[in-house]
Amino acid sequence: QVQLVESGGGLAQPGGSLRLSCTASGFTFSSYAMSWARQASGKGPEWVSGIDSDGSDTYYADSLKGRFTISRDNAKNTVYLRMNSLTPEDTAVYYCYAQTTLTYWGQGTQVTVSS
Prior knowledge:
By secondary structure, this protein is mainly beta. It has strands at 3-7, 10-12, 18-25, 34-39, 45-51, 58-60, 68-73, 78-83, 92-99, 103-105, 109-113. β5 and β6 form a beta hairpin.
């Protein structure tokens, strides 16, 4: 079955960086675009970034452009999200998802930005 497992979340200081990973299994990873979304406590979900199947095109929420970088390694079935210059407003649960014939979501990884 399809599985998406995120990792790399945790506590970061304002101005710090984190790299999230999402490792996929159960489908042909290299054939599909992958995306990241986040949800802060008490708020609705927010799309963060996307990358096409071979990594040649990337997309970002306007508010995050320049601070976040999405990438993928199809040999490792993994998509990454590098987050720089973190602020407390980036505190959220971050999810990766795959849009195949259905949309599959990971379980999420908590990112907390606090001093």
